Automatic annotation (TrEMBL):
The UniProt record lists the keyword Signal: yes
Signal peptide from the UniProt entry: 1-20
Pfam families reported for this sequence: PEP-CTERM
UniProt domain Ice-binding protein C-terminal: residue ranges: 174-197
Protein's recorded name: Ice-binding protein C-terminal domain-containing protein
Keywords recorded for this protein, A-Z: Signal
Organism listed in the record: Sulfurimicrobium lacus
Length: 201
């Protein structure tokens, strides 16, 4: 009985890995995000470096991105983040991370580039848990991210040091710590052990 309960708890945790799905070249990203950051929530100066300005919404950017008003691309409109400055005053950033203040199971964002290859990595505690590479252009299929896996960081890297524009960051469910199924399994196992001790006392 105990082995069965522990197995169920283990399967619940393992299912988070087996259900992992990269979101690549999607037209809409998450089906039902809990929140979407449009970067209109806090209006900054043009070309301002963006790091923790949106931390109250659950995300920090590192090393930094830049604040910019952009239009003319699908799912990209109004205030956005870029890896370059319009004025050329700051260094371009060809690898950056979205660091979430709580572990997530789902997150996606709209991003356009010049038809070049980009790498997307989901990390948890600094360890890569899922990754994919794809071409990123200016089509309407411009949402990228991860779903069905626990992570607290998405790292994005340009394979050829290209430019990009990012908008509409969708955030799904935060991960309960620890998962409720694991707690249930451990609780039931403890109950069975306690009852057996009483029975044989």
């Amino acid at each position: 009985m105990i082995k069965k309960i522990i197995a169920v708890a283990g399967l619940a945790m393992f299912s988070q890995i087996t259900n992992a799905t990269p979101i690549s070249n999607s037209a809409s990203g998450l089906a039902s995000p809990l929140s979407t950051i449009t970067f209109n929530e806090h209006v900054l100066a043009a070309d301002a470096a963006v790091t923790n300005e949106y931390s109250d919404l659950g995300v920090i950017f590192s090393p930094n991105l830049y604040y910019s008003a952009q239009t003319g691309f699908p799912n990209i409109d109004g205030n956005t983040l870029t890896n370059f400055t319009d004025s050329g005053s700051g260094p371009s950033v060809f690898q950056f991370s979205l660091n979430f203040l709580a572990s997530q199971t789902d997150a996606a964002f709209a991003m356009v580039s010049n038809g070049s290859s980009w790498d997307f990595e989901a990390l948890l505690g600094g360890a890569v848990v899922e990754t994919f590479s794809t071409l990123v252009d200016t089509s309407a299929l411009d949402f990228f991210g991860f779903t069905g896996i626990s992570f607290d960081e998405i790292r994005v890297t340009s394979s050829v040091e290209d430019f990009m524009i990012l908008d509409n960051l969708q955030i799904g469910n935060a991960v309960p710590e620890p998962t409720s199924m694991a707690l249930l399994g451990l609780g039931l196992a403890a109950l069975v052990v306690a009852r057996r001790r009483v029975k044989w006392a």
